[in-house]
Amino acid sequence: MADRGRHAVRQLRGWFDADGRGTVAFPILVLLYELPATMGRDFSFAIQSVGMTSEAIFILARRQMLAWSMLSGSLLGSLLGLPLGIVFVAPLVPAVWVKMVFAVFWAGFGLVHLTRLDDLSGNAGRSAADDRWEFRSGFVVGLLAAVSIVAVTGVGVDMLLYAVLVLACRVDPKIAIPTSVVAMAFNAVYGIAIKLLVTGVEPGVYSNWLAAAPVVAVGAPLGAFVVGFIRRRPTLLFVAVLCILQFGWACYHERATLGVAGMAGAAAAVAACVWALDRLQRSSERPNTPA
Questions:
Q1: What gap in Å lies between CA 282 and CA 267, rounded to an integer?
Q2: Which of 30, 78, 135, 199 is deepest in the core (most CB within 10 A)?
Q3: What's the pLDDT tens digit per position in 47-77?
Q4: Where are the domains of the chain?
Q5: What CA–CA distance (Å, rounded) separates 123 from 121?
Q6: Is 6's pLDDT higher than 80?
Q7: Residue 211 CB contacts under 8 Å (≥ 6 apart), including other chains
């Protein structure tokens, strides 16, 4: 019970960071407690099905502005992609690369935030893009994220959707963040349902979920409320630094398995993510020409 209590406290601390959200669960379980990566993935689905859903209900009840076209497209993409990813893709990925996929994506996300902090913190208002373009973009993001990173790690569609909204569409983070929360809430509930009905969940998920669920059910919407009073730039900077630190932590933790070549490959993958996200941001500097 003491271990479960400490776990609940860590979840509470993590859930007060509304930008980090459910992704705190994966590195804590897998890197700190050295539990299997597959358990970290299943627990991420399970705990976010409570926390993200609670936060999404809070967002919808407050009638916060959302990027509805992008969101509806991403939900449709996830609806089609997540079963394929969980059943066919996730079983093929070795456990160590489950950890590194998570670490690489979030490190790239953090580095782009550091290098583009002034641009991102200056975004205001909604996107000027055509609704049909946003729907198609959301569908592609939802489909690709669900098949790959969400199915493998239990998180990620929120980060990718947020990146497209903020970098490509120049949407205010105060619109992009709640939009990404609602998208991840759907993926979490859908993902854990698929796991329960089709593949089963890892042993130990339920006991950890039982300890943390009551805390995150309250902490998630409270975190969303509190972050609304915090200045945007410090919040983005804090999240970016955490994203980069967890990559270094993951590489150090898996140094014996990865070796020099594996760590070099992980660093190259981070560089590729940064390049792709930077290109995405630069594309917003050109006029949109939706079909």
A1: 22
A2: 78
A3: 899 989 998 999 999 999 999 999 999 999 9
A4: 2-283
A5: 6
A6: no
A7: 4, 5, 7, 8
